[in-house]
Amino acid sequence: MPEQPQPLLSVRNLTVAFPSLHAVPPAVRGVSFDVGREKVGIIGESGSGKSTTGRAVMRLHPSATRITADRMEFQGENLLAVSERRMQAIRGHSMAMILQDPKYSLNPVMTVGEQIAETAILHEKLSRRAARRRTLDMLEKVHIRDPERVMGLYPHEVSGGMGQRIMISMMLIARPALIIADEPTSALDVSVRQQVLTILDELVGANSMGLLFISHDLNLVRSFCDRVLIMYSGRIVEELPANALDKATHPYTRGLLEALPSLLHPKDRLAVLRRDPAWAKT
Amino acid sequence: MIEVENLTVAFGHGPRANRVVRGIDMTVGAGECFGLVGESGCGKSTLLGAIAGRVKHWQGAITIAGEKVGPVKRPLAQLRRQQMVFQDPFGSLHPRHTIDRTLMEPLRIHGIADREARVEKALEQVGLPGRFRFRYPHQLSGGQRQRVAIARALILEPSILLLDEPTSALDVSIQAEILNLLKDLRERSGLTYVLVSHDMAVVAHLCDRIAVMQDGVFVEISSRDAMIRDEVHHPYTRMLREGSLGYRPAAAVPPG
Ligand SMILES: Nc1ncnc2c1ncn2[C@@H]1O[C@H](COP(=O)(O)OP(=O)(O)OP(=O)(O)O)[C@@H](O)[C@H]1O
Ligand SMILES: Nc1ncnc2c1ncn2[C@@H]1O[C@H](COP(=O)(O)OP(=O)(O)OP(=O)(O)O)[C@@H](O)[C@H]1O
Ligand SMILES: [Mg+2]
Ligand SMILES: [Mg+2]
Q1: What is the mean pLDDT of residues B218-246?
Q2: B31 and B48 Cβ atoms separated by less than 8 Å
């Protein structure tokens, strides 16, 4: 792999604390990582701070949230210092996030077709009519059946997996330099998932895009990503080449691998993880 | 326990109506776990919604525990018998209700005593600390919200659970705990499940029979053993089974 001169995103010692009446530890505690033009996976415990990390990079948290870092740079720009206005431009054009509940990040009173077309008008300066054509193409590209009909639906009328693909189709139009995708394919059947991931794979390869891919699917991360970060209780506890996930040494990661049900080797009861309070310290 | 005959669900009217579920028959025995897998958008959530009483304009017949149910206005006692865990917990939890209220409300509606103890037990079963009771849904992670939705379904001690992707937002260690809990409940209290999931390993782990759905119909119903031993027949079933083994870069996928 060639030396990567400057990563797209560079984060050092990121800490995120939500306001609280009680003394709770910050949701993210001193996290450091880089993302280059590659696919970086994040797996980890439910509630370990994966989505919070992604939202902090996008600056999507409410202002009462305390975010500190020694460094949080995107394409050389200090994300902690840029104005809200500049941040909006970055979010619109160079960095985008697919949220964990995509249907609820769409505008509920606009049809999905109108929303995709709006993206096309903004990014590709298309006319209304051309934008409509483009919307149909995109829906087809993410393998949505009967795109003519789906264009006219409101977000609450589409299925879980259709919502995810609608968000992905908007990414394909906006073509940001970095996509933070929070479980973007959890509601897709394996064949559609394979097709959608192939599209993302091409974007990373051909457009030299960076992808931060949050997922609970160990087999998927192992086979799709280049590197993987493992989070536990607000920290990154381990980092590995994705195809070496089996060689993980942290007891949390080992426990995950053992808890995985297997089609070929069924068991009556799955192994459960005994969480050691010491993992949350160091 | 559940009998569905020639069930059809359409959205919209007249010639532009979209028939999402097209004449499905299914029978789920008491204490059985019935799995449902299939293409995204093929009608799985809609089918579950019709059984749960959430989707109201269907045709055909649904019988639950020997009682015929209608598309609208089901009596409270009938509704309590089956509980559903929705695919998108964010949409099914009231954004301005605390977790405590979300869990208390069904108990209150059905006039159940001992609420305090039941709420505590339900949270413990899904591995959430008691301090989360006073949070709102947006203050929880995706997987924590999902577990609240599971707790809410368990709290009424239903005899049927309709589970729409209940563990896809959970890390596999918590998924293992939930799947073990579901197995325990079934062995202890004879619960009946219908489980929708895209993860074939999860479905095969829990379910006795697995229906494969495409475009509103079942193309195959396979036994658990047949799925594990690769004795399934329909090409779509075979593809889902193959695909459940991981992502393959485009170059490695044979054309066609
Ligand atoms: N707005 C908020 N106020 C208070 N606490 C919050 C808020 N949002 C998240 N949290 C807490 O911060 C922690 C990290 O949440 P986050 O959503 O980042 O988890 P996650 O790793 O994405 O988990 P999951 O895999 O379940 O989605 C959780 O314990 C959560 O309850
Ligand atoms: N309220 C509605 N109005 C119009 N169409 C709807 C409505 N609800 C669902 N549909 C349509 O019904 C079809 C099936 O949706 P359903 O949610 O049942 O799919 P699914 O099998 O659960 O898919 P997924 O695996 O992606 O969640 C989709 O084409 C969807 O657009
Ligand atoms: Mg999350
Ligand atoms: Mg669904």
Answers
A1: 90
A2: no
Which runs of consecutive H residues, i.e. helices, occur in A175-250? 190-206, 218-224
- Among all ligands shown, which has an atom nearest to the Cα of A158? 2
Q: Which of B64, B58, B28, B57 is nearest to B208 (CA)?
A: B28
Domain around A62? 1-87+180-186+209-282
A-chain CB neighbours of B144 within 8 Å are: 46-47
Residues 6+ apart with CB under 8 A from B250: A198, A201, A202
Whole-angstrom Cα distance, residue B24 to residue B216?
Answer: 8
For residue B131, the chain A residue with the least C-alpha distance is A22
- Decide if A128 is inside a domain: no
**pLDDT tens string A136-158:** 999 998 999 899 999 999 999 99
Ligand 2 — pocket residues by CB below 6 A?
A 153, 157-162, 187; B 11, 20, 40-46, 87
Nearest to B151 by CA among B172, B132, B171: B132
Which residue, A213, A133, A203, is CA-closest to A175? A203
Q: Is this complex's ipTM strictly greater than 0.90?
A: no
Render pLDDT for A168-204 as a digit per residue (tens, 0 to 9): 999 888 889 999 999 998 889 888 888 889 989 988 8
What's the domain count of chain A?
1
Q: Say which residue the tokens 């459960």 belong to.
A: A272
Asked if B61 and B134 sit in the same domain, the reply is: no
Whether B251 maps to a domain, the answer reads no
Residue A125, min C-alpha distance to chain B (Å): 31
Do the chains contact at A186 and B177, CB–CB below 8 Å?
no
Report whether B41 contacts A153 (CB < 8 A).
no
Distance CA A39, CA A78 (A): 22
What are the tokens at B49?
């919604």
Collapsed DSSP state (helix, strand, coil) of residue A34: strand
Which residue minimizes the CA distance to atom 18 of ligand 2?
B43
